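Deliverable D4.2, example record:
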Amino acid sequence: MYTRILVPLENSKTDEAIVTHVRSLSEHCHASIVLIHVADGFAARNINSLELRESEEIKKDRAYLDAVAAKLSAAGYAVEAVLASGDPAKEISAAAVREKCDLIAMATHGHKGVQDLIYGSVANEVRHISMVPVLLVRAQPGGSASK
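Output generated by the structure prediction step:
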């Protein structure tokens, strides 16, 4: 079925929902997991063009990503971690191809209407631009997956 699953993380409680779901899916399919976090602050989006150093935000993002990867690895999962920067939807879609993933599994907040206009929806944009199948898991307000 799936051999390599890309899991975008945003460093929030919502991540718990998708990580929990992907652990089961990975076991069922014997798939490896590729975690990705896309830093999208000013420094992250301009680090190369402005020759900036890593910001504190990027350092914290890297530490978070590495901690989640280490926890999964310690539990026996084959896992890799990728820190990207730029537009989240574009970077996630590009990483799926670059990392040879056959599924993107991501959590959604479940915004509706005006909230989507204000906050946008990375999941919705990924769904539209990616040629890799996208699994969306809606997180409850506290961060766990809805049943």
